[in-house]
Amino acid sequence: MSQPQSSLHSESDVPQPVTPASTYRLQLRPEFPFEAAGAAVPHLASLGVSHLHLSPVLEAVPGSAHGYDVTDHSRVRAELGGEAGLRALAATARAHGLGLVLDIVPNHMAVPSPLRLNRPLWKVLRDGPDSPYARWFDIDWQAGGGQVLLPVLPGPAEVSAFVVDGDVLRHGEHEFPLREGTAGLEPPELLAAQWYRPAWWREARTALNYRRFFTISELIGVRVEDPEVFAATHAKVLELVRGGVVEGLRIDHVDGLADPGEYLRRLREAAGPRCWVVVEKILAREERLPSAWPVAGTTGYDALHRVDGVFTDPAGAAELARLYADFAGTAPWEETAGAAAREVLTGDLAAELAALERLAGLELAAAVRELLITYPVYRPYPETPEPDPGALERAAAALAATPADTAGGDGDAAGGGDAAFGDGGAAGGGGDAFGGKRGLDGVRELLLRDPAFAARFAQTSAALRAKSLEDRAFYRYAPLLSATEVGGEPGRPAVPPGEFHAYCAALTRDWPGSGTVLSTHDTKRSADVRARISALSQAPELMGRPAGADPQLAWVARQTALGLGDAPEAPARLEEALLKAVREAALHTSWTERDEAYEAAVPDYARTGGGLPPELAEAARANLLGAALLHLAMPGVPEVYQGAETEYRALVDPDNRRPARFPREALARLDAGAAPRGPAEEKLALTAAVLRLRRARPALFAGYTPLTARGPAAEHCLAFARSPGLVAVATRLTYRLAGAGGWRDTVLPLPPGRWVPLAGPDGAHGTPYAGKAPLGELLAAWPVALLLRQE
């Protein structure tokens, strides 16, 4: 089912975690419950995976298509089949040699409608800060004047619209718990006497006084740092782990927690040493996961960026950036990202910024703001609370360049205009002002000495990075859309082979059980869509000048259509994705301030995007198969997203969360000896071959040794050896390779032994190689190769 794997992060006398050979992600929803997942088990077992990775399974908002809006931690979701359904799925999986991994959500719960679905929150709203459940939620009672702001109303609150009905207070379709002893009060006094204040949803931006998930007020932060809250919210999951129903856990949004390291240590102690645990953590390119965390690694966005990057041509990407700037007039990436961060922090996250500034004091407000904006990674951690010197220097430079009349931000949300200016300098004016060097030193001291400030700074920083980069700047900066992906770096999209090899070597050494992914429920474009788009980096001249009154949207539509191609229902799906893109970019319209006239023109762009140029078809195929091979053969635990064992073209959610389609018939046909038909079946054959090897012969996938080709086209080969017995070879930049005359006499030196190509699900066949392999011969039929050493 799975193989124990040694770890540098465990003592030698402690039982080692059960590390999956691979995982397969299933998005559960009422239309795809446990029973449907059970029906897919035979196919997934045949494919070669070792574990099913299930999206959240605890009780959630009725009808939820994702399950991250948890309402009850004590029950398995009834809409999916309840606990009996989950246990039946586990039994079916076990009978086929598979284990289960659960996605859990410790950071937040839903603020549902009706509110009573979240019983702990309902009781807090009824009984106030004296409720035994008040410790569950990250609420700033003082900031709200003793009331929790509930931004759930469609418009400004009118006192006359509230009606007492027994033990509840009603407003239209909304119902709220009534504080004991207040039913007979007159409406104004009645509302003032409650432990909450129902409000127009727009008030959340500046007046919200509970921590939320990013900017989503319907998700309230949970204080799992409290041992009692941890115990209550994890009891059911831990029961499933200890009972053998579940072998692994994926921790959603670990950056949202007050102290991720302490949480993970508590979880490890409770779950036991054999539970495989990975964290959803976005690492910057040079950032490293804290080595003290008792986890196997991340969910794998760091691997996604490296795999995508080696198939991106750096010169072509730079040319696309030049063409894009000339066509759309967009600022460079660094300016775009910085502007988005400032905009989101002082706008969408104004309430969070105000709360942080109250903790810091007004004299440090400008320094807090600039450090948040320039912070180089998602957040600091209690293990490493001090920002690096580069972050402080960038913040100081930004403060010095900020005009004094704007440094204080937008009114009270950013500290207002009454801040103390220290030695006569303007806040934010640099020099000895509190907003300059002294201010930054003050913030650094707070990060080191004030746990409450450090936790809130870290949580706000993580929310800011996610919203300003992933959900705004990535939609505003689009030279090469394949690079605007979770964990990516659009300003440096290409990854040199040497950097890829160094990353893999570090993964083998430090985090051999870490997850790796290419497509997830959160990727903006699936791996195969990105593979088609990234082919443009080899031929930027084929981008052309797309038509449309809005050059930015025309460029985005062109590349998105190229990536999606002739996928099922492509026009409608493209239109939906483009509409989301313009709202997230917030340049002409947004989710909260919609320009109906502008949005009415978006469908026209969906119809004029165009498809993949025929000249790039082979490059797209090579990217698709090459990325799949590297992902499946490289160090770590590869995860296949539902349906992505074959060609899988999906756009941003909800498109990528559509019900899964499993290529059962195609796999059966390939297993019966049929040749793959087209790239989709080639990918399926390749995926099955490598996954089956990983499950049957895990020792083959140990170690990592880069291999370097020799000859005129050596740069187009990326190859490595795993253990003494497996070699993976991929072609990169195929379009440029063909233009330069092909492989010619380029060869790949091989480790000692005789090596046989593995070409699909039928096993090893072909001419053995010893010493070296001529790449023109080895890669004549497929742009990838997997070689096994003959015993």
Structural class, by secondary structure, is: alpha/beta
Radius of gyration: 27 Å
Q: Could you give the order of strands across the largest sheet?
A: 18-17-16-7-4-3-20-19
Strand content: 5-15%
Low-pLDDT stretches are 1-13, 404-434, 760-764
Largest sheet: 8 strands, parallel
How many helices? Answer: 26
Mean pLDDT: 91
Separation of the first and last Cα atoms:
25 Å
Query: What portion of residues is helical?
Result: 25-40%
Shape, per Cα inertia axes: globular
Number of strands: 26
Describe the 3D structure.
- 38% of the residues lie in helices and 15% in strands.
- With 791 residues, it is an alpha/beta fold.
- An 8-stranded parallel β-sheet has the order 18-17-16-7-4-3-20-19. A 6-stranded antiparallel β-sheet has the order 21-22-23-26-24-25.
- Strand 10 and strand 11 form a beta hairpin.
- The longest helix has 26 residues, at 451-476.
Topology diagram in text:
Layout: E1 3-4, E2 18-19, E3 23-26, H1 34-47, E4 51-54, E5 58-60, E6 70-76, H2 82-95, E7 99-104, E8 108-110, H3 119-127, E9 148-153, E10 163-165, E11 168-171, E12 174-177, H4 187-192, E13 196-200, H5 204-207, E14 212-213, E15 216-221, H6 227-242, E16 248-251, H7 260-271, E17 276-279, E18 297-298, H8 301-310, H9 314-328, H10 333-346, H11 350-360, H12 365-374, H13 389-400, H14 437-449, H15 451-476, H16 497-510, E19 515-516, H17 527-534, H18 551-564, H19 570-585, H20 596-600, H21 602-607, H22 617-633, E20 637-641, H23 664-671, H24 678-696, E21 705-707, E22 717-722, E23 726-731, H25 734-739, E24 747-758, E25 769-774, H26 775-778, E26 784-789
Parallel strand pairs: 3-4, 3-20, 4-7, 7-16, 9-13, 16-17, 17-18, 19-20
Antiparallel strand pairs: 1-2, 5-6, 8-15, 10-11, 11-12, 14-15, 21-22, 22-23, 23-26, 24-25, 24-26
Helix pairs in contact: 1-2, 8-16, 10-12, 10-15, 11-15, 12-13, 12-14, 14-15, 15-19, 17-18, 17-22, 18-19, 22-24
